[in-house]
Amino acid sequence: MSTTTRKGGKLQSEIPGLSKALCLKLLNDLEKGKRPVLHATKCSLDNSIYNHKVGYLTPGGKKVATELNVSSVKKMSRAVFMLEILLRNIESGAVNTKRELYYMSKGETKNTPLLKPLDFTEQGESDETIDFLCEILECYREEFNCYANDRGGQTYSQQLVVTETLTDGDTAVVDLSKLGTSPFQPKNRPQNLRLSAKKKIDFCLIVESEGTANTLVANGITKRHNCIVMGAQGVPSNAVRGWAKLIQDQLDVPMYFFGDLDAYTLQNIYRTLKAGSAASLIRNQDYSAPDVKFLGVLPEDIKRYDLFDYPVKENDVQEVRALKKADDALKNDPFFQDKRNKGLADILRWLYKNKRRCEQQAFFSVNPKDPTMPEKIIVDKIKRGEFV
Amino acid sequence: MAEQKKISSSSTAEYFSKNLQQVGFSSPTKAVLTTLKEAVDNALDACEEHQITPSLRVEIDRLGAGSIKNSERIRVVVEDNGPGIDADDLPKVFGEYLASSKFGRGRCTRGQQGIGISAATTWAQLTCAQGAKVVSKTKNMRKAVSAMIEVDIKNNKGVMKNRETFDWDRPHGTRVEFVFDGRIQINGEAGLLNYLLGTTLVNPHLQLEYKLPDQEVQKVERVSNDVPMIPEATEPHPHTMKLGEFIAHSHLFGRQKVSAWLKKGFSRVGDSVIEEIAKKKELGVPKANFEKLVDQLADGDLNKLFSAIQNTELKAPSTNSVLSIGEDAMSKSIQRLGKVDFFSVVTRKPTICDFKPVQVEVAIARLEQRGGDADDPSQLLRFANRVPLQFDKSACAIAQALSSVNWRAYGLAQPKDAFPLGPYIFAVSVVSPFIKFKNASKETIDASDELVEEIRRALIQAGQKLSRYIKAEDKANELEEKIRYIEQFGPILVEGLARITQAKEDQKKRARDGLMKILGRDTNETEKELTDANKKLEIQKAKDSEEQA
Questions:
Q1: What are all long-range contacts of A71-77, with beta carbons under 8 Å and residues at least 24 apart?
Q2: How many whole angstroms separate alpha carbon A352 and alpha carbon A332?
Q3: Which pairs from B280-283 meet CB under 8 Å and 24+ separation?
Q4: Whether the predicted pLDDT of A3 surpasses 50
Q5: CATH number of the CATH domain containing A32
Q6: Which of A357, A386, B25, B392 could form a disulfide with A381 if both were Cys (CB 3.0 to 4.6 A apart)?
Q7: What is the dihedral angle through the alpha carbons of A245, A249, A255, A260, rounded to the nearest 10 degrees?
Q8: ipTM of the complex
Q9: Number of H helices, E strands in chain B
């Protein structure tokens, strides 16, 4: 089984067969008195490969082997127990969140005395079990009908039309220009969506702050320009990542990310959007948009537009941690080490060295009397090619 | 011009009566504990001095409200079967400061200076206007004497009042009763119970009967009939002396030759040392000076002699003057604290710390009855010359040594630089004729680097022994846990796999058998480890009993 050969949607039908084969192998090993071993893909930076032609982080060859012994028998029993619940969901078409699955598993253990020892005391334990299964079968949890909250990704456009195939086979067509001031909220099942444009779209702008995306639209960016504006709402959720990938694949428009100039944004938000993350190596293929460019804030924007920037405060735990991580990323992260991402690595190095940050909202300081000034700067930057 | 103020001198008693906080009477709670402690110390010292196996009776009552704010009127009675005190000596013992048979003798007795019990009498006198009520009888007395002893504070003299004689139904002994203002704290680190239990722990030969307020009479039997022989003091080592002490010491040997004084009056000074000093001209002590009588030496000569000795290398002081409780006695005694799961005791060889002989002993026990949380710090019992220390723990050499050991290496939980956690009792005894306390109330042992290191080594040795018990127990728990795991999860795993694969019953059975075989191998390994751990423990136990024998 290989993550690079399959496309989302096709694999779900394969999962029951793969699961059964895996369980049969375990059972046969047991019959022979041989210790069964489960191999899971190692999802960490040291097993991440970045190839600019692929565009996102892919798993290397490292596997985590779990051999059956007294210490692992509980983990394996829990995995088989959860697999049974998930396979039942696939069969019936039922969909659940991780939290719901946690409670479902608790219901099972409550009603079946034999299963009592498997009881999950916290959701973290059942989440780990689901992730473990995904790493063994190299599949997404969505393929197990386990979906996350559709957080972030509110999208505005006067040209974009979304066609969704529903589970009962019906289709729903959403023309974003007809939504008034409401945004379109993408789902994290991108495989069910088809995109089209009523008119040629010039660019897609992904804004880190949901509020700023809203402001740009309210001030008329989508009226003045043929574009898509999306709010990422911080670290992109699977919905945002899948949605960005869909826009990239189906519309072929230039995509730009506009966010804060700081180490956290660059590593945790932008890098995840563009190339995925080490924790989600298996899903990066369908949950990253390698064509997204970093529009800013760039270090040179500070001088060019005389923006307010400030040193990273010691009590800013998130940013202090991100700066520490930056040093490690420059040395070990294959994404920042790739020479084609030198521009991005230079920004990270600049941040690490100067320990300063500049927020995206600083563009509002350029001409406070002109509410469209940030939009003008953004469009200007796109035109002049001032992005990385 | 202002009138010149008259300079007056005060008696020792006057000084202490105004500074009782320096000798353990700084609060009503401490007053009760210190009074009890002084009376018990004296009783035990007297018994040991006369090789009597001590039987003590302690009684503490509340008599009503005290005269000091937030205090109660307390009665403390301590009765012993010791040698008794001659009637004429009673005022000196209970009513005169620094009138002691132990002062400066350099022996490992509990009392050292002759301050404590007189301070207790003073406190009773100041708060309740009556001194110590004493009954005593020596074996030569036909009748016992009963009297009230008070301190004549102006003159530092004991005063005897209400002297009476009566028939006492015992051959000898002493009973002392104090009524004073104080406050009773029974439990906790600074509580009376802790003091009494601690005292029994380091005195295996003690039989103690005690009655605390609102509690039944408790009796703790002795676990040893051997009364410790308190080693005779060795002569002072010149390197532990100051010039003034050296000169004062010379007065005791006035009509003897200087060489004889040095050889008889000091330890570690012999002919070779004298010859070495005489040879080195730069030291300024000619050979002839050693032949003079001590009286004939001028002050300048004594100064030179003192400096010469200080600058000459001498052997470290002898360790013969220290006293140990012994591992055997400690092993028995620690079991009087309550039911223990296991314990480990270590008696270090006497050694020299800061140029003073010292011996450290450690007992660690895990109590069966575990009051409190597993995350509570362990209990530390500190002893100096077999007297429990209950205050100012953090500055004490013993506490610092305990925190400095890495107990995690021996299987105990321990936050960084802190006491280990869990239901353990650590008892550490430091015995020395010259313990350096941080204060006159003898609550804390000064934490010199050498002493802390010596205590630390004793703790490490005890920790190593203890770890064998913990390891054996851990292995037994591990085995039990593994068996429980196999029994619980084995069938669940096979059933789950069988349901997903729709396996038949015979396939299920084979898989179940195979699984039990695989997991059984894991338990075999732990069983072997457990056997090894138990073997090591048995070897240690055998070695311990051999050493104790």
A1: A73/B485, A73/B486, A73/B489, A73/B490, A73/B493, A73/B519, A74/A117, A74/A118, A74/B485, A74/B489, A75/A129, A75/A132, A76/A26, A76/A36, A76/A38, A76/B493, A77/A117, A77/A118, A77/B489, A77/B492, A77/B493, A77/B496
A2: 15
A3: B280/B308, B283/B307, B283/B308, B283/B311, B283/B312
A4: no
A5: 1.10.10
A6: A386
A7: 10
A8: 0.80
A9: 14, 14
Of the candidate CATH numbers 1.10.8, 3.40.30, 3.30.70, 1.25.40, the domain formed by B238-310 belongs to: 1.10.8
Pairwise CA distance, residues A350 & B125, whole Å: 79
Q: State how far the Cα of B201 lies from the Cα of B383, in Å rounded to an integer.
A: 10
A162 and A140 both lie in a single domain: no
- Which residue, among A385, A138, A184, has the nearest Cα to A285 in the 3D structure? A138
Which residue range is the domain that position A27 belongs to? 11-144
Which SS3 state, helix, strand or coil, does residue B145 take? strand
Chain A residues contacting B via beta carbons under 8 Å: 19-20, 23-24, 26-27, 29-35, 68-70, 73-74, 76-77, 80-81, 83-84, 87, 114-115, 117-118
Residue type, A31: E
CATH topology of domain B327-465: Ribosomal Protein S5; domain 2 (3.30.230)
Identify from B515, B516, B525, B527 which residue to disrupt to test chain A contact, counting A C-beta atoms within 10 A and taking the largest count. B515
Cβ contact, residue pair B485, A69, below 8 Å? no
Q: Is B492's CB within 8 Å of A77's CB?
A: yes
pLDDT in tens, B368-409: 765 666 778 888 889 888 888 888 888 899 999 999 999 999
Residue B311: both structure tokens together: 């600058």
To 5 degrees, how large is the angle CA B139–CA B145–CA B149? 125
| β-strand pairing of A293-296 with A227-231 | unpaired
Q: Six-digit token pair at B257?
A: 């030759």
What SS3 class is residue B390? coil
Reduced to 3 states (helix: H, G, I; strand: E, B; else coil), residue A354 is: helix
CB of A220 closer than 8 Å to CB of A228? no
Token code pair at residue B426: 């650590």
For residues A142 and A238, the answer to whether their CB atoms sit within 8 Å is yes
Give how far Cα A74 sits from Cα of A19, A115, A349, B487, Å: 19, 11, 45, 11
| Closest C-alpha among B330, B413, B409 to residue B364 | B330
Q: Which of B484, B485, B493, B524 to mutate to test the interface with A (most CBs of A within 10 A)?
A: B493
* Gap between the Cα atoms of A308 and A105, Å rounded: 51
Rounded CA gap, B467 and B461, in Å?
10
At B20 the pLDDT is: 67
Q: Would the CB atoms of B486 and A114 count as touching at under 8 Å?
A: no
Q: Are residues A139 and A240 in the same domain?
A: no
| Residue A356 burial class via C-beta count within 10 angstroms: exposed 0-12, middle 13-18, buried 19 and up | middle
Indicate the pLDDT class of residue B8, thresholds 50, 70 and 90. Answer: low
The architecture CATH gives domain B12-220: 2-Layer Sandwich (3.30)
pLDDT reported for residue B372: 62
Amino acid at position A361, single letter: Q
Count of structural domains, chain A: 2
